[in-house]
Amino acid sequence: MRVVTAPPSFELRNVFAGPVDNPILRDISVDIPCEGITALAGPSGSGKSTLLRLLNRLDDPTAGTISLDGRPLSSWEPSDLRRHVGMVFQRPPVFDGDVLDNLRVAEPNVTPEAARLVLEHVGLSPDLLSRKASDLSGGEAQRMCVARALLTKPTVLLADEPTAALDDVARHTIEDLGLAVAADGVPIVWVTHDTEQLRRMADHAMVLIAGQVAAFGHVDQLSEHEDPAIRKLVGAV
User: Fold this and answer.
1) Can you give the pTM of this predicted structure?
2) CATH level 3 topology of 9-95+154-233
């Protein structure tokens, strides 16, 4: 796993995204530090998932520029970028075959020994390597997908509400895994609607409202924000 000693940052400048006549994101200019865990918070439809998808070129902005550590994302081949900027989705994509086959989607040359180690790293039994991936529970499948993302040794990991479809036990397991991954030096940008989760996990938070950045800063700072709507969205009571 790559340890980042000088965290890179995403730099967004005058970014618009979505339909030209009704953008989802509107004129966003912000730097997202790639260290620890940064939560993207805000009401449904505010553009959180859209912004996340821009960060590894699942979508491209209709205007403006996005860079990672000073390099424009538009200069990367998307497949190369996604090895540096991994992503975990709300519903884990599970492919045909066993768990090893699924891990090899990210790293075709991974050996069974290396695959067992990465399973252990995300809290899964190495014995699952030969299990049919479609037979995994929701929590197991999500951890497998984190393992798959980590195999490419990403610079940063994106997580789009990765616990939304899980029960309480699995949700806390994935939260603990996210904290451990960040502590190991792989920063995470994490979309969440769950303010309790945000307060348990996040170092920084960006609050999006109506496609614009309404606030950004350390969670403790935003908890004292003058706007009660901001305080509510970061779970301050």
Assistant:
1) 0.91
2) Rossmann fold (3.40.50)
